[in-house]
Specification:
Layout: H1 18-21, H2 56-63, H3 66-71, H4 82-91, H5 110-113, H6 115-125
Length: 153
């Protein structure tokens, strides 16, 4: 029986190109070939140039570059730093026709520790959903439609 938790790569991925295998496992993805070289653990003193990136994170960081200095020294209780959250958006410039978020939460606490970045990005991505917004809930079952969704069956 195999040990748990598993470590290393499964034999089923041995045939894949090296640039793909670099993104599997427990290590941070670093690949010169794909220009994925942002070191999330050792943040540079200055924010990398994101002016040609197409993401909500890059857009906000270009508008408010002071956010980088404000947030780069913070970490969550689980050790998630700003670099872990923005690595995908720094490594992947995206395409002007497809704006991505460019940001990931490394854990639940990331939303609070890095709220000055997450809140405006979430708001922009969803076309107006500020941090203090609440989702309306109406549990009145009499308002549920009885129209058959698929009348054929």
């Amino acid at each position: 029986m195999a040990s748990y938790p598993p470590s290393g790569l499964a034999p089923t991925v041995d045939h894949l190109p090296e640039w793909i295998k670099l993104g599997l496992g427990d290590k941070e993805y670093m690949c010169d070939e794909k220009k994925a070289t942002f070191d999330a653990d050792n943040l540079p003193e200055k924010l990398p140039d994101l002016s040609k990136h197409s993401s909500y994170m890059a857009e906000l960081m270009c508008e408010k570059p002071e956010l980088y200095d404000q947030l780069k020294g913070k970490t969550t209780k689980n050790g998630v730093n700003l670099g872990k959250c923005i690595k995908t958006g720094v490594d992947n410039p995206g395409h002007p026709s497809i704006k991505t978020v460019g940001l990931v939460a490394g854990d639940e606490e990331s939303y609070e520790v890095f709220k000055d970045l997450f809140d405006p990005v979430i708001d922009r991505r969803h076309g107006g959903f500020p941090a203090d917004a609440t989702h309306t809930t109406d549990l009145d079952f009499t308002k549920v439609s009885d129209t058959p969704i698929d009348p054929s069956g």
